[in-house]
Amino acid sequence: MESGGDYFSELGGEIISESGGGLPRNLQIVRWTNFNPGNSHTTTAYHPANFGKPLRIPESAKSWDSDYLLPDESFSVTFTDQGVYDYYCVPHEQAGMVGRIIVGEPEAHGRWMEAVAASSGLPDEALKAFPKVEEIMAKRTVRRV
User: Fold this and answer.
1) Which fold, 7-139?
2) Cα distance between the two ends of the chain
3) Is 122 helix (H, G, I), strand (E, B) or coil?
4) CA pair distance 8, 14, nearest whole angstrom
5) pLDDT digit string, tens, across residues 98-135
6) Which GO terms of the molecular function aspect are on file (predicted)?
């Protein structure tokens, strides 16, 4: 699971699968749990269906929005399409609470990076918090706190 800011110190994430690891394969489930006793959080895909945000997930992927997760509440998403998935916390996006998940292996000349390049309408702190795709692929997981 990849994350910018301190998203996962507040909103923990885990990949639920036999293989484990930081890069889920197709048809794997990712579950987020709010471990922060004093705040609610969301996990919301960058997608026009979510408050008109730019598309930063694969075009064929289903958008998601957990709504507000109270402490100890969880939300899961099943990833069925390869690509880069960027997401954010609705109340904390301005502070850089965003995350990135990569499903599969990037294609050398594919459309993987087109959605990631869509930076219009994103707060500067959010843009700064995303780990680079290359860093995620090299380290397999990136957490910033």
Assistant:
1) Immunoglobulin-like (2.60.40)
2) 14
3) coil
4) 10
5) 998 888 876 665 666 666 666 778 999 999 888 888 88
6) copper ion binding; electron transfer activity
